[in-house]
Write a structure and sequence with these properties.
Layout: H1 2-8, E1 19-28, E2 31-37, E3 48-49, E4 51-54, H2 59-71, E5 78-83, E6 87-91, E7 96-107, E8 118-124, H3 132-137, H4 149-154, H5 160-165, H6 171-199, H7 209-226, H8 231-244, H9 259-284, E9 291-295, H10 299-306, E10 312-316, H11 323-331, E11 336-340, H12 345-351, E12 356-359, E13 363-364, E14 370-373, H13 376-385, E15 390-393, E16 429-432, E17 439-442, E18 445-447, H14 449-462
Parallel strand pairs: 1-7, 9-10, 9-12, 10-11, 12-15, 15-17
Antiparallel strand pairs: 1-2, 1-4, 2-3, 2-8, 5-7, 6-7, 13-14, 14-16, 17-18
Length: 466
């Protein structure tokens, strides 16, 4: 095994150069995998850590081997989110220097097969690594970890900046990352509170609830500003702050909302969001039969199709990002897939006897119109011409509180990078009229316009925290 091979060579290593190791954080439903090291390893037996191994070659290659050997998860079951800057660790007690290369992966499954280098495994909120108070608030017990595990996680944790810059993932995925930012920051504030209380046990200012709330409210506002067109991100962030600032039973404002209340609301919000997305996909699976057409990438559509047994799927490539290609590739192992250019969608609908168009949504407006990746509107119009029903699959959290939306635009050079005096428009999203849709399939069932407006009104109430 990776870790044992390296630890067996410990005696022959020198102290002049640090040992390079990889640490992978596997994430599922917003929680990360930690493993308890066994006596079979040469360092830190009994301590908890991520999936780790010595970097005998290139760290980017070694980390995949460590995941395979230490968890049994294959490359098809995990996807790299990001690699972070290395963390230097000095341990004078054992006279060792380490350079830790962190990576974050999304895992499709929690079913793992531990090697004999670990005795236990657990999926926990990362905040459980940030101190006693955070561990208690997240419902997990304190764990002794390998050195600087929290600092290592912070190198790959989601940030406001990473959410703002992300052009690869959908709105639902990014909304969960936004709640993780709030959760992690609240956990760090609790860690700082504990340190202050330990250092100044008689201080009346050890708990600065107002200061914690102000800082977390500022983070929330930066998240809201990072992707202003994403209703689901706004709704989920607003709900975390609204729940943190109210009494859950009476619905009245609390006297002192603080980091602990935000942490609890964020953890609950992440679990609620993951469940809502899964429920929407489950309800949509009954429509994912026969011959389907879809476009771009939608996690809920993807999961709905996997839960069904369609005869064939036609996928528009969805330029400029060509997210449809990823959709086609991931579905090709389970069903017959045909990939087509965006401009050919109307032709495919006219010639290929499509039974259903199934698409995701970036935002659902209060009047039932749907904002989604450019190409959705022409696909819906062409489907109406051919009497093909169009179903939109999305969690109800994607219903916007606003009547209008600011549509994001892509790079103009993706359309034209020449020298002629040509104006370019490259909208990333378009708006599909409600009367072009057969139904909005959500975690709350198939919604009609009255349902959409009612849910939008509920989300407006959550905005009053700010």
């Amino acid at each position: 095994m990776t870790e044992r091979r390296a630890s067996e060579g410990t005696e022959s290593s020198t102290n002049d150069e640090p040992d390079h190791v990889v640490t992978a954080f596997l994430r599922n439903r917003g929680e990360i995998l930690v493993c308890k090291r066994s006596d079979a390893v040469g360092t830190y037996p009994g301590a908890w850590g991520g999936v780790s191994g010595f970097a005998e070659g290139e760290p980017d290659e070694q980390v995949w081997r460590a995941i395979d050997e230490e968890t049994g998860l294959t490359a098809d079951e995990v996807s790299l989110v990001r690699a972070g800057r290395p963390v230097s660790v000095s341990d004078p007690e054992i006279d060792r220097e380490w350079v830790v290369h962190p990576s974050l992966f999304d895992a499709a499954s929690r079913e793992i097969d531990l090697s004999d280098e670990h005795t236990e495994a657990a999926w926990i909120p990362p905040t459980a690594l940030a101190g006693d108070d955070a561990a208690d608030a997240s419902g997990t017990s304190e764990r002794e970890t390998v050195p600087k595990l929290w600092a290592t996680y912070e190198r790959v944790a989601p940030t406001v900046r990473s959410i703002a810059a992300d052009d690869d993932h959908g709105a639902a995925w990014l909304s969960i990352r936004a709640m993780e930012v709030l959760r992690d920051r609240a956990g760090l504030l609790l860690r700082e509170r504990t340190a202050t209380a330990d250092a100044e046990p008689d201080s009346e200012s050890a708990v600065d609830a107002d200061g914690e709330w102000d800082e977390l409210a500022a983070v929330a506002n930066r998240l809201l500003e990072s992707r202003p067109s994403m209703a689901v991100l706004r709704n989920r962030v607003n709900r975390v702050l609204a729940e943190a600032s109210t009494d859950g039973e009476a619905g009245a404002e609390t006297d002192t909302p603080d980091a602990s209340s935000v942490l609890e609301a964020a953890i609950d919000g992440i679990e609620r969001a993951v469940t809502a997305d899964a429920d929407a996909a489950d309800r949509a699976s009954e429509f994912a039969t026969g011959r389907l057409l879809t476009l771009s990438w939608s996690g809920t559509v993807h999961d709905a199709i996997l839960a069904s047994d369609p005869d064939r799927i036609f996928v528009a490539e969805s330029r400029p990002g060509r997210e449809g290609v990823a959709t086609a590739e991931t579905l090709a192992d389970t069903t017959a897939v045909t990939l087509c250019p965006d401009a050919a969608v109307a032709h495919v609908l006219a010639e290929e006897a499509i039974d259903t168009v199934l698409v995701g949504a970036d935002t659902i407006l209060p009047d039932g119109r749907v904002v989604n990746k450019t190409g959705t509107r022409p696909a819906a119009l062409a489907a109406a011409r051919e009497d093909v029903p169009v179903y939109v699959v999305a969690a109800s959290d994607k219903i916007s509180t606003r009547e209008t939306v600011n549509l994001e635009s892509g790079d103009r050079t993706a359309v034209y990078d020449g020298d002629a005096r040509i104006d370019v428009t490259n909208p990333t999203f378009d708006v599909t009229p409600a009367d072009c849709l057969a139904g909005l399939v959500t975690d709350q069932g198939i919604l009609d316009p009255a349902d959409v407006e009612r849910i939008a009104a509920e989300f407006r109430e959550n905005e009053t925290w700010n």
